């Protein structure tokens, strides 16, 4: 653990929902829920206006609708989230070379490499406050909650203490006083199962956890987990901020404007993706044992299935055959909006090479073209453009009609118009690529 509060954790507030409110003026200050909009959907993010009604991430959409029926329920716009995340991560990397992204909306930053005159509490506080303002500027209105501490654990805890749009600095030497009254669930890795085990032992707070011996914790939750809990209960965390992580997987995925229902088409797409993954593996002299497919259904439900081989492979045929077999176990009759193939468990050798076995014939990549059906999919919240009205977003659709509100982040709340779902004047709006996607 460091002697100065030089680790920063930045977390964008209600990220997906905040981006939607920024880009849709009519939704500002109103409850917004982003995620699966169908009956089997799951909430990805809820705005703070929806959270006061009890809506939370990972809650079923059905329950969210019952708690907050007047909310706007929107499917995701990942291009908009990527753009905002790219702006924030670029800003963070401009102030320190040691930035460790955890997801699109949060990252650790090592202020020891930020070129500050010193790392006293007043200095890092002023720096973080100024940086929060710059985040709002580069994202055109989003806010971030920031925590500063002597370790990654303390910085993460601090960023959760004053949400949204808050800043908390934990001064060196005050870490244990901060943690002791808190629930044990504040510690990373303490999920429902561990919480229940600790509860049965009469341990509810960090202070109670701190009073338990290492031997007793090992008996309760195992050696690795118990040792980690024992250290974190004492605010002991020496993990560094790591800017570049070694690749743990190689994957390719695609999102489709029209829900896919043809199983042979899906198999063809997976085969082509498997070929691209295998080519990347061979390019970097890598191979992998675990093949995974990712399938996002029409209602935003995301499924994944994996299979682990007896030895690593970089063969497109092997990856493709395994991916197709995994797809066969899934019910995709309702339509698929995203498909992906990945290989993990990476190694820098291929088992077959060690025994001089001949490589199996590679499958020829199929010429796959996603058909354009006359019946288009209009997901609530998606960006569209009309030949006369300009840019807008889908308010709702059904029974052959799509309703659009015409507004953008730069306009006032706009008018609502309805069109036939196959109106040729209305199309999906395609965003320009990000700078690092130009190639």
Automatic annotation (TrEMBL):
The EC number(s) this enzyme carries: 2.7.7.7
Ranges where the UmuC domain occurs: 7-191
Pfam families to which the protein is assigned, alphabetical: IMS (PF00817), IMS_C (PF11799), IMS_HHH_1 (PF21999)
Main location: cytoplasm
Site label Substrate discrimination, positions: 16
Catalytic reaction list: DNA(n) + a 2'-deoxyribonucleoside 5'-triphosphate = DNA(n+1) + diphosphate
Region feature (Disordered): 410-439
Cofactor: Mg(2+)
Single GO MF descriptor: DNA-directed DNA polymerase activity
Cofactor note: Binds 2 magnesium ions per subunit.
PROSITE patterns reported for this sequence: UMUC
Top-rank taxon: Bacteria
Similarity comment: family membership: Belongs to the DNA polymerase type-Y family.
Assembly and binders: Monomer.
Name this polypeptide is given: DNA polymerase IV
Organism per entry: Nocardioides deserti
């Amino acid at each position: 653990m460091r002697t100065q509060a030089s680790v920063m954790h930045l977390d964008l507030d209600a990220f997906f929902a905040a981006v939607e409110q920024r880009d849709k003026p009519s939704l500002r200050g109103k409850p917004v829920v982003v995620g699966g909009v169908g009956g089997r959907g799951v909430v990805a993010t809820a705005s703070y206006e929806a959270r006061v009604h009890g809506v939370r991430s990972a809650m079923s959409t059905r329950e969210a609708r019952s708690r907050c029926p007047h909310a706007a329920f929107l499917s995701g716009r990942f291009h908009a989230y990527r753009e905002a995340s790219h702006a924030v991560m670029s800003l963070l990397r401009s102030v320190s070379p040691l930035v460790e992204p955890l997801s699109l909306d949060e990252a650790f930053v090592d202020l020891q490499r930020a070129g500050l005159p010193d790392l006293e509490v007043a200095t890092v506080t002023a720096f973080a406050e100024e940086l929060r303002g710059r985040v709002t500027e580069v994202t055109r209105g989003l806010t971030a909650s920031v925590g500063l501490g002597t370790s990654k654990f303390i910085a993460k805890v601090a960023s959760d203490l004053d949400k949204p749009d808050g800043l908390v600095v934990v001064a060196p030497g005050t870490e244990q006083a901060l943690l002791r009254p808190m629930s044990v669930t504040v510690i990373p890795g303490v999920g429902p199962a561990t919480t229940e085990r600790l509860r049965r032992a009469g341990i509810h707070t960090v202070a109670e956890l701190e009073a338990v011996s290492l031997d007793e914790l090992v008996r309760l939750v195992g050696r690795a987990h118990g040792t980690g809990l024992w250290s974190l209960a004492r605010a002991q965390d020496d993990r560094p901020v790591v800017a570049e992580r070694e690749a743990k997987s190689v994957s390719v995925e695609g999102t489709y404007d029209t829900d896919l229902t043809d199983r042979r088409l899906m198999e063809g797409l997976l085969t082509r993706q498997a070929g691209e993954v295998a080519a990347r593996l061979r390019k970097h002299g890598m191979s992998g044992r675990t093949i995974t497919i990712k399938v996002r259904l029409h209602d935003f439900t995301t499924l994944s299935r994996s299979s682990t081989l007896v030895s690593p492979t970089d063969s497109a045929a092997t990856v493709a055959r395994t991916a197709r077999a995994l797809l066969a176990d899934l019910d995709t009759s309702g339509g698929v909006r995203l498909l992906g193939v990945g290989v993990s468990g990476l190694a820098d050798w291929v088992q077959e090479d060690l025994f001089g076995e001949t490589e199996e014939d590679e499958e020829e990549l199929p010429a796959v073209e996603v058909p354009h059906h006359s019946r288009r999919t209009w997901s609530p919240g998606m960006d569209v453009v009309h030949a006369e009205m300009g840019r807008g977003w889908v308010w709702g659709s059904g029974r052959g009609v799509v309703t659009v509100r015409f507004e953008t982040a730069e306009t006032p709340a706009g008018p609502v118009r309805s069109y036939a779902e196959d109106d040729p004047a209305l199309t999906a709006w395609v965003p320009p690529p990000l700078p690092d996607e130009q190639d």
